[in-house]
């Protein structure tokens, strides 16, 4: 798996570049600002980009905006955003890009295991979606939250689904039966008016439903 890393912190950037190859990840470039990120991706054509949200020159949301631009150019490019906080505006746009596939949003302070992190990167590179449950929780608190109609248990199931887990894994994590998880997922699909389709990932659309409402 070929990866470009964008992180303004030298220690974190070099740490990731040193650790990820132990898990079969080839770091083809590591950069510290968004213009260099754009150039590196266009030059190396990686499978995955791992980018910080705040980067030079303004330290606002340059990394996230660069990721959105890259996904606009190539919707199939896998992107994982790393942040210390939830940046609502561009977070929603990033997660909605590429039909919600091959994308992730993780909080730095909640990454506690390198092997698990590498597994999450691989899951995104293979077309999955990984969203930190704290990101889901914060975005659900927005006053225009379209998920208010979901039950507490359905919200729990959705948070686990957002991490890319299968029904079986969700059942283990939530102490439910697999049939129970499937029922909750079916209910939330119905409540969010997500019809059956061979062309869309309804699990991802369920997570994105409330994100899109922020720009309405």
Radius of gyration: 17 Å
Cα end-to-end separation: 37 Å
Overall geometric form: globular
Order of helices and strands: EHEHEHEHEHEHHHHH
What is the CATH first-level class name of the largest domain? Alpha Beta
Q: If classified by CATH, what would the architecture of the largest domain be?
A: 3-Layer(aba) Sandwich
Count of DSSP helices?
A: 10
Low-confidence segments: none
What is the number of domains? 2
Structure commentary:
The chain folds into two domains: 1-131, Rossmann fold; 132-216, Arc Repressor Mutant, subunit A (Orthogonal Bundle), CATH 1.10.10.10. Strands 2-1-3-4-5-6 form a six-stranded parallel beta sheet, sandwiched between helices. The chain has ten helices and six strands, in the order E-H-E-H-E-H-E-H-E-H-E-H-H-H-H-H. Helix 2 packs parallel to helix 3 (62-73) and helix 7 packs across helix 8. The model has no long low-confidence stretch (mean pLDDT 84). The protein is of the alpha/beta class and 216 residues long. Strand 1 (2-6), helix 1 (10-19) and strand 2 form a beta-alpha-beta unit. 40% of the residues are buried. Keywords: DNA-binding, Phosphoprotein, Transcription, Transcription regulation. InterPro entries: CheY-like_superfamily, NreC/VraR/RcsB-like_REC, Sig_transdc_resp-reg_C-effctor, Sig_transdc_resp-reg_receiver, Tscrpt_reg_LuxR_C, WalR-like. Residues 2-123 form the Response regulatory domain. One of its GO terms (biological process) is phosphorelay signal transduction system. The modification 4-aspartylphosphate is found at residue 52.
